[in-house]
From TrEMBL:
<dbReference type="GO" id="GO:0005856">
    <property type="term" value="C:cytoskeleton"/>
</dbReference>
<dbReference type="InterPro" id="IPR048278">
    <property type="entry name" value="PFN"/>
</dbReference>
<keyword id="KW-0206">Cytoskeleton</keyword>
<dbReference type="InterPro" id="IPR036140">
    <property type="entry name" value="PFN_sf"/>
</dbReference>
<protein>
    <recommendedName>
        <fullName>Profilin</fullName>
    </recommendedName>
</protein>
<dbReference type="InterPro" id="IPR027310">
    <property type="entry name" value="Profilin_CS"/>
</dbReference>
<comment type="subunit">
    <text>Occurs in many kinds of cells as a complex with monomeric actin in a 1:1 ratio.</text>
</comment>
<dbReference type="GO" id="GO:0003785">
    <property type="term" value="F:actin monomer binding"/>
</dbReference>
<dbReference type="InterPro" id="IPR005455">
    <property type="entry name" value="PFN_euk"/>
</dbReference>
<comment type="similarity">
    <text>Belongs to the profilin family.</text>
</comment>
<dbReference type="Pfam" id="PF00235">
    <property type="entry name" value="Profilin"/>
</dbReference>
<comment type="function">
    <text>Binds to actin and affects the structure of the cytoskeleton. At high concentrations, profilin prevents the polymerization of actin, whereas it enhances it at low concentrations.</text>
</comment>
<keyword id="KW-0963">Cytoplasm</keyword>
<keyword id="KW-0009">Actin-binding</keyword>
<dbReference type="GO" id="GO:0005938">
    <property type="term" value="C:cell cortex"/>
</dbReference>
Amino acid sequence: MSWQTYVDEHLMCEIDGQHLTAAAILGHDGSIWAQSENFPQVKPEEITGIINDFNEPGSLAPTGLYLGGTKYMVIQGEPGAVIRGKKGSGGVTIKKTTMSLIIGIYDEPMTPGQCNMIVERLGDYLNDQGF
């Protein structure tokens, strides 16, 4: 299965009538493996900050999480595994796998829990597959 298929069929799937706003799968080096059409243009320093927070949990909290120039307030996640961010009525969930970052961006009416479930379920599957 192609990486784009994972984005299109798994990350951008419908849950209770809701969809993520945007999603992507990136390598730890920031290379984009696949993304939805409207995924923001991420900067290398944003990916570096995210990777640093996985290695040193809490390092993004003082400055916020930036993705495509949009600032998210970092909220509770799972140290070393999941980073969650909030901005207004939406937010972002980032799951780190062995080789990749799974990123889902949502807005109301989708709930944070629905976004977490979509992103983390695919992340767990890819971890099981060695990715």
